[in-house]
Write a structure and sequence with these properties.
Blueprint (H helix, E strand, L loop, with lengths): L2 H33 L6 H22 L4 H19 L4 H14 L3 H14 L4 H21 L5 H16 L7 H16 L1
């Protein structure tokens, strides 16, 4: 590569990194603006944090041209970190659960079988069950993505909808509140 090609390559990489940085900064600003409204509502803040994190991963995936496998790994890595911080469960347990899925991932049937076996084994750990279900849901939906049955945007929408359903399952917060948080987040990003 000559000096001119090196300079052009550097400029392209720099522009791409600047774009990522700017978009991530916008996500953070949207998060901060909305966070103030829900300071005393733990579940709403948890959802808002999830939305911000999910948007970050999908933004980086799009700009950096990640494949589906890389995007899935990032989402799981982020969920492991989040759950380990939010619970008393050691991070190694979540990593071991993830490894179990990685070893058996061949078909939807094997994903479901692994999910059932791990759920049985860890039935006394609600955080573990949450993670097991999350990973299984990701694997199944990424399988659909790789088959071309859904788009990345559809996948993101499904993940956010699933999180809303889980968090609002007992009525607090309501599904409407969570939907409004997401709408507000998206509106801030588009302005």
């Amino acid at each position: 590569m000559n000096k001119k090609e090196e300079k052009e390559s550097f400029e392209i990489a720099y522009a791409k990194n600047r774009k990522v940085y700017k978009e991530l900064e916008n996500l953070e600003l949207a998060y901060v603006k909305i966070k103030e409204k829900y300071e005393n509502q733990k579940e709403c803040l948890s959802f808002l944090e999830y939305v911000k994190t999910l948007e970050k991963v999908f933004t980086e995936a799009k700009i950096r041209n990640w494949n589906a496998e890389q995007s899935k790994k990032e989402l799981i890595k982020v969920e492991i970190k989040h759950l380990a911080q939010a619970s008393s469960v050691d991070i190694e347990i979540f990593e071991d659960l993830y490894d179990s899925f990685q070893k058996t991932y061949v078909s939807i049937g094997k994903i479901v079988k692994t999910q059932e076996e791990l759920s049985q084994k860890h039935q006394g750990c609600l955080d573990c069950l949450e993670f097991i279900n999350y990973v299984a849901y990701l694997y199944i939906n990424f399988n659909e993505l790789q088959k071309g049955e859904i788009s990345m945007e559809d996948l993101k929408t499904k993940l956010i909808s699933a999180r809303m359903d889980v968090l609002s399952s007992d009525g607090t917060p309501s599904l409407i509140v969570l939907e409004n948080i997401y709408k507000e987040f998206k509106q801030i990003l588009t302005h």
